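REVIEWER CHECKLIST
Item 1: Sequence provided? yes
Item 2: Single chain? yes
Item 3: Sequence as submitted:
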Amino acid sequence: MKTKLLSFLILIFVIEIGFSQKAVLKANKTITKPIKNAQVNQLNSSLFFDNPLHTVKYIGGSGGLLGSYSNPDVNGFESISPSEADSYENAGDVSFTEVGIAYSVTFEDHKFYRFNVEKGFYQFLGVIPPEVGHNWTGLEFDPLSGELFGVSTNFEATSIIYKIDLRSLEAAQVATLSTMPIAIAIAINGEGSMFGYDVLTDGFYSIDKLTGETVFIGEIGFDAEFGQDLEWDYNNDILYMASFNLDVATGELRTVDVNTGATTLLFTQNVESEQLSWISFKNDGILSVKDKNISKFKVYPNPVTDNKLTFEVPNNEKISSIEMYNILGTKVMTRSEVNSANKTLDVSNLSSGLYMLKLNDTDGNTLAIKKVIKK
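Item 4: Structure as written out by the authors:
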């Protein structure tokens, strides 16, 4: 279990009930994906987790419902409010740099949305298309850099990972996944390592997010269909899987052993054809901590561009230690014996991303808190 500064997490699920499907027969397996049909009554839901993680679950598509599960190990959905997405939301994730904000994309028309995971209030951002002939199947924010990664597939033989810029509404291809023909979901752990699984091979893989090279870890142990996602519980170092198991024709929640790929069933949905199309914890981490006494202590340059961070301390203040935390709230640097007026920190060993700088006095009290960005 990793040490964390804060433990405010929201696990978000998307459930799709009663969708029509078109079959794509590849190799010896049939992969199904939903198609929009105005005559089909769609029900989508989103969930709260309280285990004791405080969460909100979101579900996209027509008739979507914001709702909750009080415990990720128990199937007990409670709706909160309607979703505002106009079609099936196939991928999504909660931001690491905006408190309580999530992003999602629809399957057929590649529409990206920004919304509040606790209230909804959807904002349509625009269309970000993947490779021609592909559909988005997964979104995941990198907890170290804050960058948004996406994965798409043509549901035949090719899957691609991307970096997505939500400001310019552009997706830059990173690489084609070497041995994952139909990658359905990705996840990134607290060290920045990417994993994913494939619904054609029913295999679990590690992924080099820079080169696209994949390593087969093991079989997931069931016949995976369309509605899938992966999400890390950073506090407990548990990887959750939202799965659609063709053997029982309904959605499930599972955990994954990242060493073997084997999965463990937590619960099955109550109604046939329900899907958990994407899941995400709310990872506020240091975002929920406000800056403190920043007018008394100068910290520059911010953002840091040359691996050197300078801070100025008033002469009447005695600083005993400096701590830096990453976006998940994990302490990544400690420095003691800092009593002079000007100091410089070498942050070359830190990855690009958002950090919190904390200055402590000789009695252990926090004198100042400042968020810092390293480029």
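Item 5: Key structural point noted by reviewer: Residues 289-374 form a domain with the Immunoglobulin-like fold (CATH 2.60.40.3080).
Item 6: Recommendation: ____
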